[in-house]
Amino acid sequence: MRFKIIIFTIAFVFVSCVNLSMEPERQMYNVICVLSNLDKHQRLYIFKTAPLEEGTLLDEKNQLIKRYFIERYVVKDAGAELINLGNRFIFKYGIYDSLYYSETSELKILPNQEYKLSINIPDGTQITGVTKTPGKIEIVQPSNSEIFRLNPGNIRRHVDVVFSWRSSNGAYGYMVTTSPPEINIVGRYHFVQDTIVKLRFEFWEGDINNIDTLKLAVKIYAIDANFYYHAIKGIDRAGFSNAYGVFGSMIGDSVTLKFIK
After folding, report:
1. Where are the chain's structural domains?
2. Is beta strand 244-260 parallel, antiparallel or unpaired with respect to 147-149?
3. Cβ contacts of residue 163 below 8 Å, gap of 6+?
4. What is the pLDDT of residues 110-132, one digit of tens each?
5. How far apart (Å, rounded) are the C-alpha atoms in residues 195 and 202?
6. What is the pLDDT of residues 31-44, one digit of tens each?
7. For residue 207, what are the β-bridge partners?
8. Which H, E and C letters describe 79-91, residue by residue?
9. What distance in Å separates the CA atoms of residue 35 and residue 150, rounded to the nearest whole number?
10. What superfamily does domain 138-223+253-260 belong to in CATH?
11. What is the pTM of this model?
């Protein structure tokens, strides 16, 4: 039987699909967990693999997965824990978000550390994964709260900003993301393998007419091998021995920029 595996990546959430031949009586799982030192609580997604069903999988126009379809395949009763240096941290399922959160804020994701993930599914399936976090990353420029003046335009304003950072030991690349500072999500993102990049920030004139100062949080992450092979190279299994998806890690630094007209 032909199946299509749905692979979610965080955060953030990347969506990719691959066709796989599988025994119909064997249930497989898709697991997504990408550790980050910039997150207060770590997140874990567990899904059953899904058979192709016309009209319920993907909206071909924009590749968004329909929520009702996701809910059918969410695993809500697994036991999961993260292990580091003999310390064990439990994940608890959050009923409203269809994912698991680490229960305590005492869990700190540190650079150059090995983390193991252990998951027990009620049907007897045991899933294990390993990731090693990249080394520390530090943004060199721009500085936090640096102010940039937007260039005038007919319908939108823009400014180019150069970012640079110190290289991270063990990183397979870097991901630069932008979002409003009060929202803990990944907005636009850019993958680079150098330690410098120039980004253009553009704002529609109508959106900033009544705003004197705009703020954006920019986060730069060093990514591990597992995240790189899954999210960038499209490998359907990275960091797990017997599940699809990814168990990866990112070590990041952030700055908040101010834009004025």
Report:
1. 2-132, 138-223+253-260
2. parallel
3. 139, 141, 142, 176, 196, 197, 198, 199, 218, 220
4. 999 999 999 999 999 999 999 99
5. 23
6. 999 999 999 889 99
7. none
8. EEEEEECCEEEEE
9. 35
10. hypothetical protein (bacova_03559) (2.60.40.1740)
11. 0.80
